[in-house]
Amino acid sequence: MQKFLSAQQFGQRIESWRWLAAGLLSLSAIAFSLHPIPDLASLQIRVESEDSTLNSGQRAISPQLQMPLYWLSTTNNQIRLIAVPTTIPAGDTTTQQITQAINALLLTTPPSGTATTIPPQTRLYKVEIHDQAIAIDLSPEFLNQSSPTTLATSIAQIVLTATVANPEAQVYLAIAGKPLTSISKTGVLLKQPLTRQQFEQQFAL
């Protein structure tokens, strides 16, 4: 025979279920506070942020180029110019490559057993290429030379380095925007354009 609950017993049973439900909701609230449901939008932003940080921390390796620079060497009291392969950043254009090479010649310590007559304060202002002509503009410090001979060898270093890619090129050398017309204060004229061939003959390259 089915047993019916009295009104008092039924009320007590409802009250106990209410407390049980309240307890379960409290436990659920505690659980969600410890392990909240992830917000997909904010999660996506966080992931993208981490990727951006990773990408910004990476540094692409610049392409490099082996290019000979010309330095002085003395053998049996004879001054010679020798080519020493040097790693420089590879420019996208011939103008950029010549610029990198001349800057390396101006700023790099000469390799062991070699020397340079280019004054250390010399800076490259500009390199321009027009067909077969290479225009090179240097700072005035280039003229701080001890003799016409050292100025001549400095010019040779610049011309030979600049014409590696194109031995037939003609070089026009300027100092602070003005064409260099003399290699000494006494008026020894410098005929331009300068060519690789004239220095190869002079220094027996």
TrEMBL record:
Q: Which InterPro entries match?
A: GerMN
Q: GerMN domain spans which residues?
A: 98-184
Q: Which domain of life is it from?
A: Bacteria
Q: What is this protein called?
A: GerMN domain-containing protein
The organism of origin for this protein: Oscillatoriales cyanobacterium SpSt-418
Supply the source organism's classification. Bacteria, Bacillati, Cyanobacteriota, Cyanophyceae, Oscillatoriophycideae
